[in-house]
Amino acid sequence: MQGKMILDSASIIENKATLKTDSLKNAGDIRLTGNAAQLVIDSGMILQKGVLKIPEGKLLLLNADTSAMQVAPLAGIKTENPVSGKVVWRIGEVEAGSKYVIPFVNDSLEDVGIELEIVEAGIGNGYFEFITYATDTNNMHYPPVMYASYFKNPDDIVNRFWSIEAKNYTVVPSATITFKYAESDTGA
Amino acid sequence: MSEPPALVSQWADTSWLPVLATLNTTENKFTIDSANNYSLWALSSDTIQTQKALFYCEGFEDVEPADSTLRRSCVNTSDAFMNK
Fold first, then answer.
1. Domain parsing of chain A, residue ranges
2. Does chain B have fewer CB atoms within 10 Å around its N or its C terminus?
């Protein structure tokens, strides 16, 4: 589908479905289910109310403009899965100083997002993938690349993981990255 | 791969890549400083930018804050934990 889309109640994009639209505005939760589910945005999206839930599948933003994703208070994106469910933003060779905000929220709609500010532009039509999820107080479940023996001070580790991965670049941009955690992520 | 030394200052082994982050407990966030990171990332043959950038932030009581800014140490797990 191309054009403008307004989702005014809870919506589900499931299994292998791809929903592609030029712009999207929501007024209720949207949920992607199934590893192949995709929500593809050509131009921009406004998360106006409710949460875009991506336990599986991905949101793909094709517009590198930092304003391509806007979010109102009490709205956001929830991934919460260590191995699947991600936000993909094709930012390519944007100039230094470009600042991207991934508005991840937790169940309480608290900000657990990521900010990525480009310091040196990259080369190539690359993109970034973003994930976050909460853990228990022992930092379980670990991301797939980690092992329990490396976690010596679970009480001192924020109960959350974030993942950022840059792909498809010839020269990957450098960036300043800020991670936000909720008070509930600091419990021992 | 062996486990990381207890003190970050002993992390000369490039298998372990300490990444300093500025922790802001008022705003519940930590920032990976670009200048710091760039030099630290350069310690590794595979920079953070070319691998999965996955961090965990560990509150090292044994790290003295360099200044009045509370700093804690974060481990760049991309180098430390991948390809194992």
1. 4-186
2. C
